[in-house]
Design a protein that fits this description.
- The complex is a heterodimer of chains A (487) and B (450).
- Chain A is an alpha/beta fold.
- Chain A contains 15 helices and 12 strands.
- Chain A folds into 3 domains: 6-64, no CATH class; 80-340, Aspartate Aminotransferase, domain 2 (3-Layer(aba) Sandwich), CATH 3.40.640.10; 345-471, Aspartate Aminotransferase, domain 1, CATH 3.90.1150.10.
- In chain A, 59% of the residues are buried.
- The model of chain B has no long low-confidence stretch (mean pLDDT 94).
- Chain B has helices at 7-17, 46-58, 81-87, 90-93, 105-122, 134-148, 164-174, 195-199, 224-232, 252-255, 317-320, 333-370, 395-404, 434-447, and strands at residues 67-68, 126-127, 155-159, 181-185, 206-213, 236-241, 259-263, 279-283, 296-300, 306-310, 376-378, 386-390, 407-408, 411-412, 423-427.
- Chain B folds into 2 domains: 67-78 and 348-447, Aspartate Aminotransferase, domain 1 (Alpha-Beta Complex); 81-342, Type I PLP-dependent aspartate aminotransferase-like (Major domain) (Aspartate Aminotransferase, domain 2), CATH 3.40.640.10.
- Classes of the chains: A alpha/beta (487), B alpha/beta (450).
- Chains A and B meet through helix 2, helix 3, helix 4, helix 5 and helix 6 of A and helix 1, helix 2, helix 3, helix 4 and helix 5 of B.
């Protein structure tokens, strides 16, 4: 069923919300500064509510089932988070209010900074970056300014393993660095020989995702970090996969200098159909002065009678500001609630169950789907979505067929180093029954691939719409449903 | 809590995997650092967590409890009940980026409608699916302009009447680019940022000129002549705008803008201490393939049914890696949805009404506050819902006194610009009543009387 657009639903003269008449004497804006037409739709409140309710029914979401997107950590988003973020004391605070009127927000941000430091083993944390990609950008700028501050201008290269997220090379390039790709070895680790070969005094740093996008913990991680440090480079840790490590190991303890967190992955803030994310960045002590401004600090210590006074602090060698105000505050509230409810043991359980679930699913599927690196995985794993005896079947066909079984497909065609990759991350919030059902669907599809391949090729059959013509979309490039000139 | 595993299920799962304990799954982690003891307080139940978070929230003053005249980039507007009611549908907020269009048409169509609304509001032809906030959307305008000229035009001119935080973020984003030359024009002026002063600095090295409309001080300048001068030099013009003001004002598109960006927070998004907010980015069709960030396009399935997909993804980082011009992964999906619902609910007549209320009340406030002895309104141009109030004493001292009477005063302009010490930026929206404004005037008179 196709839902009309809001412009198609518009009827001249309708209105959804009325506002009071002005209670002040009227004045006039010069006609020359006013617009002649305002091409917005006209709908009643009922029209609007029904339209968006219809649209919502066309979505798959975590609340309807398993969402095994690898590297996206689609875990359940606790309902209490939503209640708390909407408390009047948070939702109705203006970011430019005097610090004395906003001590609750500052205390919460300070406590979240401290908590993230403890969880990942860093000396300082900024909450400002809006998302993981912006956290990476912040981290790479810190790397750049750190070397510059030491008068070390020849470090122009960033090393990036071929198993890294695409954001890593894009971030390095937009920060003015040359990207040097690093191959993986036969066990899916960083190739140490190659790393030694390229590490010299032109290397600014290495961006390391660990566990990597194959879901594997690098067996030589300490050595990898040492090699880069000995060459004078810094090591950036991509925290996208932190859900495997809570209470398991602290990246800062391993020697990682900088890392971004994804509050929307690891700490359960909702993905919102593609944002808002939130990407705080942690650094070790020698980089704390470079963090974006401002940070939250204690400006007057607590006394016997008074709590501490919180305020904003500008790090002395700051890279500047990467976003307006202080970050995605509403996400800090949700993430901090989540962390407080778990405590240290609960956080460790999160990662333990995330890894248990991934390995269980792998055990159930591993005989039928080819696993390129035969090792214990962490929170996710990658299999090949193809078989040599039926070359016409691709990962995409399997992904689309899964929708008929009422599951969201895994991430596909990523990482690029695995042929026809299907990247599966079940997260800790799935039960054994839910994993069993998913594994059964995957096994049934593998059977269909041989017996009734057309079921896969033409899938999905049971969704609001069939496979969409992406070439047409890019060629015709229709980006708006109605513009005044269309008539 | 949120993991459903029972002890017997865990044992059975471990058996399937072929290991004895969960600890055995972590053998790749260096033993020395494995299983650190995290020094964090014990976990709370939902009841306890709620109580603790109430304590944090309760230590804040709010714009509901106090009377606020703060704007300067974040605005207190009325949010119709329908907005949050729809946002709380978990089909929207617990979904991921719509990579699989067959099961994400709800999100995709909503973004497609968002793109349409933003294009129509700004008078442009295309819009993307959103950026993090107004500041980063402004920075992305700089990125697009720089790449549009393949780095051969290194100059970016910023009006000093562009939000100072936006200018800072643009500088952070672009400072790594080869030969980049970012200049702010007019910072030393007493009243900064007349667009005509800016036009004189444009030359054939200039990639982009950035102005704000209404500007950071609330003033409205017709940009038509300026746009012409910018285009004569072959440069592009980006206009940072306020979407509520566009309920009344001539569009940046009509005046010749090439790129229109801004902060979408006024469109149904709570203040929430500065985030999450919504950056919007609209441009001309000729630049559609150069926009960074997500785009949703219309297409059809095999049966000819209309549907929507993320399009031009080949520009993006997960495919082009180091060759892409931006590292953007997410947009502000849920915030874009909020703005889409808001604009659908208020519609054509409602947005005009809100804009007019802001305009009328701000002008009444300027009238009344300008008559308080010692105060004067500094404005050489028409303004929208913010204006500069010159004060007889430092703004911080006045605001401290106002706070004692439950008023959050205007933004202290001296913080960003020395020439504007003793000047505050007053913001008035539809949430402020005539009585509120009269009360502010009387308190100002009282606290500065002696």
């Amino acid at each position: 069923m196709t839902e009309p657009t809001i412009y198609e639903l518009s009827s001249a003269g309708r209105t959804g919300v009325r506002f009071p008449e002005p209670d002040v004497p009227l004045t006039h804006l010069p006609q020359s500064l006013m617009r002649e037409v305002l091409p917005l739709p006209e709908l009643s409140e009922v029209d609007v509510i029904r339209h968006f309710t219809h649209l919502s029914s066309l979505n798959y979401c975590i609340d309807s089932g398993l969402y095994p997107l690898g590297s996206c950590t689609m875990k359940y988003n606790p309902k209490i988070n939503e209640e708390i973020a909407r408390l009047e004391g948070f939702a109705y605070t203006h970011p430019l209010q005097p610090e004395s009127t906003i001590q609750g927000n500052l205390a919460l941000m300070y406590d979240l900074q401290e908590t993230l430091k403890e969880i990942a083993g860093f000396a300082a944390v900024t909450l400002q970056p809006a998302a993981g990609a912006q956290g990476e950008f912040t981290g790479v700028m810190i790397i750049r300014d750190y070397h510059r501050s030491r008068g070390d201008a020849k470090r122009t290269k960033i090393l990036i393993p071929d198993s890294a997220h695409g954001t890593n090379p894009a971030t390095s390039a937009m920060s003015g660095f040359e990207v040097v790709p690093l191959p993986s070895d036969a066990r899916g680790n960083v190739d140490l020989a190659k790393l030694r070969e390229v590490c010299d005094d032109t290397v600014a740093g290495l961006m390391l995702t660990n566990p990597n996008t194959l879901g594997l913990f690098d067996e030589n991680v300490i050595e990898v970090i040492n090699i880069v440090h000995q060459a004078g480079g810094l090591v950036y840790g991509d925290g996208a996969n932190l859900n495997a490590l809570l209470g398991i190991v602290r990246p800062g303890d391993l020697g990682i200098d900088i890392m971004h967190f994804n509050l929307h992955k690891t700490f359960s803030t909702p993905h919102g159909g593609g944002g808002p994310g939130s990407g705080p960045v942690g650094v070790s002590a020698h980089l704390a002065d470079f963090l974006p401004t401002p940070l939250v600090g204690i400006v007057e210590k607590a006394t016997a009678d008074l709590p501490p006074l919180y305020g904003f602090i500008k790090p002395p060698k700051t890279i500047g500001r990467v976003k307006s105000f202080f970050g995605q505050f509403g996400m800090f509230v949700r993430a901090y609630t989540y962390i407080r409810m778990h405590g240290p043991e609960g956080l460790r359980k999160v990662s333990e169950y995330a890894v248990l679930n991934a390995n269980y699913l792998l055990a159930k599927m591993g005989d039928v789907y080819h696993l390129p690196y035969k090792r214990t995985c962490m929170h996710e794993f990658v299999v090949e979505g193809c078989w040599p005896d039926i070359p016409e079947i691709h990962a995409l066909d399997i992904a689309k067929r899964l929708m008929d079984y009422k599951f969201h497909p895994p991430t596909n065609y990523f990482p690029l180093i695995v042929h026809e990759a299907l990247m599966i991350e079940p997260t800790e919030t799935e039960s054994k029954q839910s994993l069993d059902a998913f594994a059964e669907a995957m096994l049934a599809i593998a059977k269909e691939a041989r017996e009734t391949p057309e079921l896969l090729k033409e899938a999905p059959h049971d969704t609001p719409i069939g496979r969409l013509d992406e070439v047409k979309a890019a060629k015709e490039l229709v980006l708006c449903c109605w513009l005044p000139d269309d008539k | 809590m949120f993991s459903p595993h029972t002890p017997s299920e865990t044992v059975e799962m471990l058996k399937n995997i072929g290991v004895k304990s969960i600890e055995d799954l972590f053998k790749d982690v260096p033993q020395k650092y494995r299983f650190p003891k995290l020094n964090l307080p014990e976990g709370l139940t939902e009841m306890e967590a709620l109580a603790e978070m109430h304590e944090y929230a309760g230590s804040n003053e709010t714009v509901k409890g106090l009377l606020s005249f703060l704007g300067a980039g974040a605005y207190h507007h009325y949010i119709p009940a329908g907005v949050d009611s729809l946002l709380r549908r978990s089909e929207f907020y617990t979904a991921y980026t719509p990579y699989q269009p067959e099961v994400a048409q709800g999100t995709l169509q909503a973004i497609f409608e968002f793109q349409t609304l933003i294009a129509n509001l700004t008078g442009m032809e295309v819009s993307n699916a959103s950026h993090y906030d107004g500041a980063t959307a402004t920075a992305e305008a700089g990125v697009m302009a720089y790449h549009n000229f393949r780095g051969k035009r290194p100059g970016i001119l910023l009006s000093s009447a562009v939000n100072p935080q936006y200018r800072e973020v643009l500088c952070s984003y672009l400072c790594g680019y080869e030969n980049i030359n970012i200049q702010t024009i007019g910072e030393d002026f007493t009243i900064p940022g007349n667009p005509d002063d800016l036009a004189a600095h444009v030359d054939n090295e200039t990639a982009l000129v950035v102005v704000q409309y209404p500007d950071f001080f609330g003033r409205i300048f017709d940009l038509t002549a300026m746009a012409q001068k910018v285009h004569e030099k072959g440069s592009l013009l980006a206009v940072v705008t306020n979407p509520i003001a566009l309920g009344l004002l001539k569009t940046p598109g009509e005046m010749g803008a090439d790129i229109v960006v801004g902060e979408g927070q006024p469109l149904g998004i709570p203040l929430s201490y500065g985030g999450p907010y919504l950056g919007f980015f609209a441009t001309k069709k000729e630049f559609a393939r150069k926009i960074s960030g997500r785009l949703v396009g219309e297409t059809s399935d095999a049966q000819g049914r209309r549907g929507y997909v993320l399009t031009l993804t080949a520009r993006e980082q997960h495919i082009r890696r180091e060759k892409s011009t931006s590292n953007i992964c997410t947009n502000q999906g849920l915030m874009a949805l909020a703005a889409t619902i808001y604009l659908s609910l208020v519609g054509k007549s409602g947005l005009k009404q809100v804009a007019n209320l802001c305009f009328q009340k701000a002008h009444y406030a300027a009238d009344v506050l300008g008559q308080v002895p010692g105060f004067s309104v500094l404005s050489d141009a028409p303004f929208f819902h913010e204006f500069i109030l010159k004060c007889p004493r430092p703004v911080e001292a006045i605001n401290t006194l106002l706070l004692e009477r439950d008023i959050i005063g205007g933004y202290d302009l001296g913080k960003d610009c020395e020439a504007l010490a003793n000047h505050m930026l007053i913001c008035v929206t539809e949430m402020t009543s005539k009585d509120d404004i009269d009360y502010l005037a009387s308190v100002l008179e009282e606290v500065t009387h002696d």
